[in-house]
Amino acid sequence: MSVRSVLGRRALQAVCVLAVGALALTGCSNSEDSGPAVEKVKVDKVDSIAAQLPDKIKQSGKLVVGVNVPYQPNEYKDPSGKIVGYDVDLMDAVAATLGVKAEYLESAFEKIIPTIQAGTYDVGMSSITDTKEREAQVDFATYFNVRTQWAQQKGKPIDPDNACGKRVAVQATTIQDTDELPDKSKKCVAEGKPAIDIKSFEEQSAATNALVLGQVDGMAADLPVTVYAIQKSDGKIEKSGAAYGAALYGWATPKGSPLAAVLQKAVQSLIDNGKYLEIAKNWGVEEGALTKSVVNGATS
């Protein structure tokens, strides 16, 4: 299951801002996005978990986090150039639980895991899917259940379970493009129905724009990406059907390090005290909220 071919579910580009009152998306930018106004959730240190941090992190007082932007709403830059997003707020809450600060360093997505292995980053945070392949290289503390969510034009329904003959937009190389929609299309053909007309776009913004303009009948993307696109669409698109599938986003840490377990305990603490769900609701991604964080939760 992957966004980048077989490498993971992380998308290459961001959902761009839909211009209010216009049927066109603005261009993507790594350095600007108005984004939603989201308040930080106050979190207290939990001494018993903080005490389990590796000595290096205790002594420095910081978690060095490698991150690739943009991928709204999870991680991107606001107009001032500050890295923000759902992942950022959750990681900041985890850092507060551990009594340290998170320091975010930009990285190319494909370089995050090698840089963790080299010891430059403590954590990799970039909507990375926890997979068996990746678990051979790093360990993961899971924090989000990523599923597929379809969208449709307002008032123009499309059934994700019966989209035979329909035009459906996806971002190229995502799991929706490489696996999910081809499988649904094969089922259509096997039943004597027309295949799904899969429209692949290099950027998620282009896929979203095609739906807004009515050039396609539907769109399929990761749940938080679709939710964010809907929020930014000025009411022009809406959810179609329920989210489905199950994969886990995880924070990558060095293989065999105690850090993964510490992060997992911090996430679970936030789940148990309600702060985790509060952060998810602030970003409108509560449908993917976990009730239990684990270390290395991949099933494939």
TrEMBL record:
Its main location: other. Pfam families: SBP_bac_3. Keywords: Signal. Residues 1-24 form the signal peptide. It is found in: Cell envelope. PROSITE patterns: PROKAR_LIPOPROTEIN, SBP_BACTERIAL_3. The keyword Signal applies. One of its GO terms (cellular component) is cell envelope. Residues 62-287 form the Solute-binding protein family 3/N-terminal domain. InterPro entries: SBP_3_CS, Solute-binding_3/MltF_N. Belongs to the bacterial solute-binding protein 3 family. This is ABC transporter substrate-binding protein. It comes from Nocardia colli.
